[in-house]
Amino acid sequence: MRPSSSLNLSFRSTINRMNNANDTMEKIVSLAKRRGFIYQGSDVYGGLAGTWDYGPLGVALKRNIMNLWWQHFVDSRDDMYGVDAAILMNQKVWQASGHVDTFVDPLCEDTVNHRRFRTDHILKDNGVNPDGMTMEQMDAAVVENDIKSPDGNPLSKSRTFNMMFRTFVGPSGQDELLIGERMVGPADDRNLEGMKAIAYDQNSVSYLRPETAQGIFTNFKNVVDSFYPDLPFGIAQQGKAFRNEIAPRDFIFRSREFEQMEIEYFVHPEAWEQAFDELLKSTHEFLESLGLSPDHIHELDVPAEDRAHYSKKTIDIEYDYPIGREELMGIAYRTDFDLGNIQRVSKKSMEYQVKGSNERFVPHVIEPSFGVERALMAVLSESYREDEQNGEKRVYLALPKHLAPIKFAVSPLLKNKPELVEKARQVYSALKKKYGAVMWDDNGNIGKRYRRQDEIGTPKCIVIDFQTLEDGTVTVRDRDTTEQQRVNIDEISL
Prior knowledge:
Layout: H1 9-19, H2 23-34, E1 38-40, E2 52-54, H3 56-75, E3 80-82, H4 91-97, H5 99-102, E4 104-109, E5 116-118, H6 119-125, H7 135-144, E6 159-162, E7 165-168, H8 179-182, H9 192-197, E8 205-208, H10 213-217, H11 220-227, E9 233-242, E10 257-267, H12 272-289, E11 297-301, E12 313-321, E13 324-335, H13 337-346, E14 352-353, E15 360-361, E16 364-371, H14 372-383, E17 384-389, E18 392-397, E19 408-412, H15 418-435, E20 438-440, H16 446-456, E21 460-464, H17 466-471, E22 473-478, E23 484-488
Parallel strand pairs: 3-9, 19-20, 19-21
Antiparallel strand pairs: 1-2, 4-5, 4-6, 7-8, 9-10, 10-16, 11-12, 12-13, 13-16, 14-15, 17-18, 21-22, 22-23
Helix pairs in contact: 1-2, 3-14, 4-13, 6-7
């Protein structure tokens, strides 16, 4: 049954969990849907947990973040190359990378209603830090602390759960479907022999990629052979990734479908530390360009027992979200793990030959990995503001101008005055041609328009009034200060 509230069930459950942490997150989630940033996936059908759709403003903000990242790490450097690898890849990719065997989370189950949860999340929600614990230690902590499921029932022992989304390529892999289920139409039209001929083929197994990194590694030799770059150099990619999360939560922070921005930076085995430090410094510069306060940014040198199986050093960059301090992105030293495994499994050399010498080796890799959704959530959290104007509460997003989905909102003072509307349309068209992200807004009185534009983070509102017709000046209102100035039309700028 659909809820009667404007927020669907998934949104409401998200909000309810966050109430215990910080009501700021509740307000951000509500604003995100109300103003067209983020909607629940499949909302009209009651939603699908762990999936989110981006509305007109959300997709613009998301794109601005991704474009800024690309400009910072790729376009502004001469040692970076971009690729866009396929989401579906040969199953051997994920076998060689270790994902098929090791990409797991601990799963426990409510023994009464059989709802499933991540054991580490259950512990964390009950005040127990699971970092560094084995699955057996987590189970022991559940018993020792008499922890129950969220419904108050006993929990089962944990088991591993692989988060890979398994699928099949082509018609030969649909072995789960019974022949009878695959037959349609009148009996005379059914081709039973044809159905029987479709046999299961293990080679048809594939996976929706859980990370974009492997698409970069599989294209390493292609880029080297095409461009023969000098070491060190990097290959960058932005794209979708998929993880079958046991219990997605915390709004867009943890979802089953998301976008990554990743770099694999290839270096001489003896030069990895210098490259690591340089990319870490560049990462902090990028985060600053997102408008994130350094006071809300923290480095965590991940201990060996908590690092991914491929990593010899990992720094997690954490951010003070309203839900608490959580990982924003990470930078890892992956050694030659990935290229070495590709070389071993494919029997093809992944060695790099230094120009002008006989020196050959498998390069080592530094990987800065960013989640777009986590970056977007940090930007929304950082920019959310409340103040009071003229005795009324005001909510606004103090987004950096270069990230704001809408740069200007243009309005006629009165929409029933043709001469004002005509002039406003002229100003709107000129700004639209120059800046692109310009909104026409004539709905409601000027005060309501200002409040609406404040909530979506529009830096400046332009109002065309009768004085505009006389002297060519307009009222420009600033989002952050609410100050208004008369500016010549030709001098309007961010």
